[in-house]
Design goal:
Length: 223
């Protein structure tokens, strides 16, 4: 993330002739002292080099249709609630201004991004909630605008080195609306003192993975 952030800040509107050289150097800076570790220079660094080549080639094509306007940008949205305002906060990997109009929110992933079905079920609300913040002008330095696309960039350094998984159009509007309704329902529920804080309100391990507090709840001992 750090290497890509430095690259985009340096080259917002145009891709220079030495783009790959720049990105590799930013990668060296981001990896820093970790480069002395064998697992890093033997495994992760070669993968980063593959990602860097794919990333530069992709950006050269994308600049005709989208321009980055913010990277690693903080945002917030104040939601009215019975017990007082609730402040939703987020940090977006990247926001692009589309040539056709509107915004695209991009999230970098090294692993597999969530499917459309998993987004629909609400297990991965990050980007839909960021769409709410962007539409309200809640990201620093980014005027309010409609979000036209929520896009995951898988940067694995494998084969292929990178993949773009976009979600667009009416589906984005539906995700944002569902996220807004779900957030409001959660706020309303937890504004009530009698609402319990459950360890796993949605116990679906294929979606949730291992929780930070599963060991305390002794989840593996559940029947």
């Amino acid at each position: 993330h750090r290497a890509l952030e430095m690259f985009v800040r340096q080259n917002g509107a145009q891709i220079p002739d030495d783009a790959l050289k720049q990105l590799i150097e930013f990668g060296r800076i981001a990896f820093g002292d970790a480069m002395v570790r064998p697992t890093v220079w033997a495994f992760w660094w070669p993968r980063f080099l593959k990602v860097a080549r794919w990333y530069v080639e992709t950006e050269e094509v994308r600049r005709a249709e989208a321009i980055p306007i913010a990277v690693e940008v903080k945002g917030q949205l104040v939601v009215p609630a019975a017990a007082g305002p609730f402040v939703l906060t987020a940090k977006a990997d990247r926001l692009d201004r589309l040539a056709a109009g509107g915004l695209e929110i991009i999230d970098y992933k090294t692993g597999a991004p969530p499917s459309g079905k998993k987004l629909e079920t609400g297990y991965f609300p990050q980007l839909p909630l960021e769409a709410l913040i962007a539409a309200a002008g809640g990201f620093e330095g980014v005027p309010a605008d409609k979000v036209e696309a929520l896009t995951f960039w898988r940067l694995s350094g494998g084969d292929p080195a990178g993949e773009i998984k976009p979600h667009q159009g009416a589906f984005v509007e539906e995700l944002a609306a569902a996220a807004q309704e779900g957030l409001q329902n959660l706020i309303n529920a937890f504004d009530r003192p009698e609402t319990p804080y459950l360890c796993r309100p949605r116990p679906r391990p294929e979606y949730m993975g291992y929780g930070d507090y599963d060991h305390l709840a002794r989840v593996e001992e559940w029947p």
